[in-house]
Amino acid sequence: MSTALPRPELPSVPAAVRTAGSEDVGAVHRLSRPFVREGALRDRTVAELARRATDFLVVEAGRAGPVGCVGLRSRTDARGRAAVVLYNFCVAPGHQGRGIGSALLGAALGEAGARGAARVFTATTGSGLLFLRYGFAFGGEEDAPPAWRASLDPARGSRVLVRPLG
């Protein structure tokens, strides 16, 4: 039995969603900190984020700079198919509930499709409601990219979600 909710239409991605660059590393790090403290995100150093700066999509809100981000890593799933893993997905608390998460997720799914991914994986310590709204379902650990799956910390209580593309 699937735990996925009916899929709404993906929102139009606002022009403010863009690929991050090296100039965004500090903002992504600051944006992530509250979620790291809560245990919702893994702690990543500025140096690690700098090495992976172009993995990220960011959403800007005027002069506030980036208020949401998500990292995308291309991987191969356990069956040898192209996959994308979403990580470090967060929206600043003062900007939640305004469609920023939906815009980021829509852009991430579009990018995953453009990369030829058969599936998109992510992990969450929360309810996963946004992911469920967009066709993800809990489970799929057995098909997840092995190196990514092995990197998940069982002590954090993360649950894997998967969404097929195409």
Describe this structure in a few short sentences:
This protein is α+β, with helices and mostly antiparallel strands and 166 residues long. It contains five helices and seven strands; from the N terminus they run βααβββαβαβαβ.
Can you characterise this structure?
It is a single chain. The protein has 166 residues and is α+β, with helices and mostly antiparallel strands. 28% of the residues lie in helices and 26% in strands. Strands 1-2-3-4-5-7-6 form a seven-stranded mixed sheet. Strand 4 (82-91), helix 3 and strand 5 form a beta-alpha-beta unit. The longest helix is centred in the middle third of the chain and has 15 residues, at 100-114.
- Over all CA atoms, what is the radius of gyration? 15 Å
Provide the low-confidence segments as ranges: 7-15
Mean pLDDT: 89
Strand proportion, as a percent range, falls in 25-35%
**What share of the residues lie within helices?**
25-40%
Terminal Cα span: 21 Å
Largest sheet: 7 strands, mixed
Number of strands: 7
The helix/strand series, from N terminus to C terminus, equals EHHEEEHEHEHE
Number of helices: 5
Structural class: alpha+beta
Shape: globular
Spatially, the strands of the biggest sheet line up as 1-2-3-4-5-7-6
Which short descriptors sum up this protein?
166 residues; 7 strands; 7-stranded mixed beta sheet
